[in-house]
Write a structure and sequence with these properties.
The complex is a heterodimer of chains A (324) and B (322). Chain A is an alpha/beta fold. Helices cover 44% and strands 10% of the residues of chain A. Chain A has a single domain (6-307), classed as Rossmann fold (3-Layer(aba) Sandwich), CATH 3.40.50.970. A 5-stranded parallel β-sheet of chain A has the order 1-2-3-7-6, with helices on both faces. In chain A, strands 4-5 form a two-stranded antiparallel sheet. Chain B is of the alpha/beta class and 322 residues long. Chain B is globular, with a radius of gyration of 19 Å. The relative contact order of chain B is 0.12.
């Protein structure tokens, strides 16, 4: 099941990198309103984990969620259209950056509430398996989420009921501006140990290292094992949110730390495993894909305000309007 | 005609839906032994996979149900205590309720949240005695409060079959009611029921208070002709049905066992006066503003809306318009 092709792994990290860079440009240009939480620097984690998944598997992500959606194989054009609030977007322009979802490929959504993905994925995987599928799930979350009770409850529930969920902690060192040392008593792996979840720490900047660790965990889970945790050490190359591009915060990350962090670049690390010709071909294809995605997004219609609450109820219930 | 208790009507609804649809399952605290006396016997009959005991992890198992619903199942969560809804308000509102819109219609989240024994149970004090239905109506989660055994059955069945989240409040004050029931059937959402026709004033009563309203209507029958309207569903609310009633009577009193500010009574009155002119100012009988139910039985009763208050409100409404 695992996709070990280094070219495809490179394509995924390169696609996420360039997607995010193009998205930041669109934020600055005013075409994406509300800003984004760029996944820049963390691409290797989504790419490596999703390379370990099969067609029936499900995942849920975070507010910094573009990478997870793209790595799982969502259409970059419809993803970008979503960020631009267009009807052609994955969520018909109703979700935006923090809620991008594509249930047709098992992406239950980015989720803006920190620590929310764990219990939702645990329930989804349990239900799919009850219905006879061989589903495993991935719950992505950041280091900030390990202090959310809801996530720790989900660790317990998944472990207790042996629901095969891979909990992936993307430890980029900061919950917004709060360093891990200022927020986490004990350790992230220690929280896993408390629930007897097997846990490994991996270098999240190396996509292949992440893929190998995730594949091993997925193999064990498919063979009947319970949930596991991967703590992927990573570094956020850019702002917590693009508002930091406009409003300068005090240096909460020391400049030399930023320089060191950016030096370990998952796109470069994976790219060096390819021939120059292969890399150039992927880069050109990704660029063409994103050129087309930007054109598609910006040429797509905006939703009709009359339809603002069209999808509020799946049952078709209609709500009273708010006017006098 | 068979007698059926309100509590057993809930049990019957769960059993019938578990039988009818393999996708339905029940989870909650102590549901296998049936500590609330609602899920009694279901684990034996349907197995512990489909009637699942959970650890005391309300937030996780509420979102677990959301995930299971996204994957095609129809979970029913039983909360033993109404105040637990405060713990899981985030999981219900921010996730279960918002997913259909936020995903642009990619999914449905058919979860039923069943709260047997909502409101005061007498002697269970501040953290077991709330009636937070207005909060769910406010955020737009379908909210039902059945008053009778037949409606308890019919609304719970409908809730489980509904494609969006539904909160079912089964008031403690109604759980032991028994009624002659010969026809158990699903009850549509958003459709109220007139329990007693009258000419002078419409009393809207929620949940168990329907029976108090009927008793008061009988007491004052020689002076005032009272119509008793039971909304059954608080959201979506049967405003057309209530408007029709108030258009006939011209007067409105609402009896609501919840705190006064921003409560259902306020919403009901506002929705009616937007539509029909009244002969007298409307009145509401509720718990006080910001009420926390005190422990001692006399204090517990003092904070809940009572029959005397309702009778007074009815008389004042008649006087105001004379």
């Amino acid at each position: 099941m695992t996709d070990a092709d280094p070219v495809r792994l490179y394509r995924t990290v390169r696609l996420i990198r360039r997607f995010e860079e193009r998205a930041v440009e669109l934020v600055h240009g005013g075409q994406i309103v509300g800003g984004i939480h760029p996944y820049l620097g963390q691409e290797g984690i989504a790419a490596g984990v999703c390379a370990a998944l099969g067609a029936d598997d499900v995942l849920a992500g975070t507010h910094r969620g573009h990478g997870h959606v793209l790595a799982r194989g969502a259409d970059p054009a419809r993803m970008l259209a979503e960020l631009c609030g267009r009807v052609t977007g994955l969520n018909a322009g109703r979700g935006g950056s923090m809620h991008a979802a594509d249930l047709s490929i098992g992406v239950l959504g980015a989720n803006a509430i920190v620590g929310a993905s764990g219990a939702i994925i645990t329930g989804a995987v349990w239900a799919h398996r009850r219905r006879g599928r061989d589903t495993v799930g991935v719950s992505f979350f950041g280091d900030g989420a390990v202090n959310e009770g809801m996530l720790l409850e989900a660790f317990n529930l998944a472990a207790l009921w042996r629901v095969p969920v891979l909990f992936v902690c993307e430890n980029n060192g900061y919950a917004t501006t709060m360093p891990v040392a200022g927020a986490v008593a004990g350790s992230i792996a220690g929280r896993a140990a408390a629930f007897d979840l097997p846990a490994v720490q991996v270098d999240g900047q190396d996509p292949e290292t992440v893929r190998v660790a995730a594949s091993a965990a997925v193999d064990r889970m498919r063979a009947g094992g319970g949930p596991e945790l991967i703590e992927a050490r990573t570094y956020r190359f850019d702002a917590h949110h693009t508002f930091e591009h406009a409003v300068r915060l005090d240096d909460y990350r020391p400049p030399d730390e930023v320089t060191r962090g950016r030096a370990r670049d998952p796109v470069r690390i994976q790219g060096e495993r390819l021939t120059d010709a292969d890399r150039a071909a992927v880069d050109a294809e990704v660029e063409a894909t994103l050129d087309a995605a930007v054109r598609f997004a910006l040429n797509s219609p905006e939703p009709d305000p009359a339809d603002a609450l069209t999808y509020l109820y799946a049952s078709g219930l209609t709500a009273r309007t708010g006017g006098g | 005609m068979p007698r059926l208790s309100y509590r057993r009507a809930l049990t019957r609804a769960l059993a019938d839906e578990l039988t009818r649809d393999e996708a339905v399952f029940v989870l909650g605290e102590d549901v296998q032994v049936g500590a609330s006396l609602v899920t009694t016997g279901l684990a034996k009959r349907f197995g512990t996979e489909r009637v699942r005991d959970t650890p005391l992890s309300e937030q996780a198992f509420t979102s677990f149900a959301t995930g299971a619903a996204l994957a095609g199942l129809r979970p029913v969560i039983e909360f033993q205590i109404p105040s637990l809804l405060f713990l899981v308000f985030e999981q219900i509102v921010n996730h279960a309720h918002k997913f259909p819109l936020m995903t642009g219609g990619q999914c449905s989240v058919p979860v039923t949240y069943l709260v047997p024994g909502s409101g005061s149970r007498t002697g269970w004090a501040g953290q077991h005695s709330d009636h937070p239905y207005s909060l769910f109506a406010h955020v737009g989660v379908v909210t039902v409060v059945p008053a009778t055994p037949a409606d308890a059955y019919g609304l719970l069945v409908t809730a489980i079959r509904h494609d969006d989240p539904v909160v079912v409040f089964a008031p403690a004050g109604a759980m032991d009611l028994r009624d002659d029931v010969d026809d158990l059937a699903p009850v549509p959402l958003g459709r109220g029921r007139i329990h007693r026709f009258g000419d002078d004033v419409t009393v809207v009563a929620i949940g168990h208070l329907v029976h108090d309203a009927l008793a008061v209507a009988e007491e004052v029958a020689d002076q005032v002709s009272v119509e008793v309207f039971d909304p059954r569903t608080l959201y979506p609310f049967d405003i057309d049905g209530l408007t029709e009633s108030v258009a006939r009577t011209g007067r409105l009193v609402v009896l609501d066992d919840a705190n006064r500010s921003c409560g259902m009574a306020a919403e009901i009155i506002a929705s009616v006066v937007e539509r029909v002119p009244l002969l007298a100012p409307p009145r509401r009988v509720t718990r006080p503003d910001g009420a926390v139910l005190p422990f001692a039985p006399a204090l517990d009763r003092a904070v809940q809306p009572g029959r005397d208050q309702l009778a007074t409100a009815i008389h004042l409404t008649m006087k105001d318009s004379s």
